[in-house]
Design a protein that fits this description.
The chain has 144 residues and is mainly beta. The protein is 5% helix and 45% strand. The protein has one helix and ten strands.
Length: 144
């Protein structure tokens, strides 16, 4: 199971209105260089090229929110990528808000897969948030 990397800047960007869950487009960035909690935007990452991935671009992830009793849960759909040629290696991946500019593509959360992965043509890699097959919790926000 991948371990979570908390992105420190996420809560500030959320408070500033940068992240508008439900209307913003979110994508996944892959890297083989460690993603750390002080990374704030996609420009802080060393991304793997998406030239050999079906669709040819960073995959889109659907992020939703729900609130119960003052606690908001953010969930994301599982994402499967398919290699059309050699893809990787990558060990880390992060969800970011797609603005079209790397310096303002703010990170939400990241994960360390634990070991590097390289896909060959036809192979797939599935990211299941919170170990669920369809949609899983990626984080909760609660009032104190």
């Amino acid at each position: 199971m991948a371990s979570v990397i908390k992105i420190n800047d996420f809560t500030e960007q959320l408070a500033k209105g940068t992240h508008v869950i439900g209307t913003s487009t979110y994508k996944i960035a892959f890297s083989n260089t460690a993603i750390v909690s002080t990374n704030a935007a996609r420009s802080d990452l060393t991304e793997v090229a998406y030239t050999n991935v079906s669709g040819g671009a960073a995959p889109t992830v659907t992020v939703t929110e729900s609130e119960t009793g003052g606690t908001t849960t953010l969930a994301a759909n599982a994402v499967t990528i398919t290699a059309t040629g050699s893809f990787g290696p990558f060990q880390y991946y992060a969800i970011y808000k797609n603005s079209g500019t790397a310096s303002t593509d703010y990170l939400m959360q990241a994960w360390n897969h634990g070991s590097a992965v390289t896909l060959s043509a036809g192979e797939t890699f599935k990211i299941s948030f919170n170990n669920t097959d369809s949609s899983g919790t990626i984080l909760t926000i609660a009032q104190s």
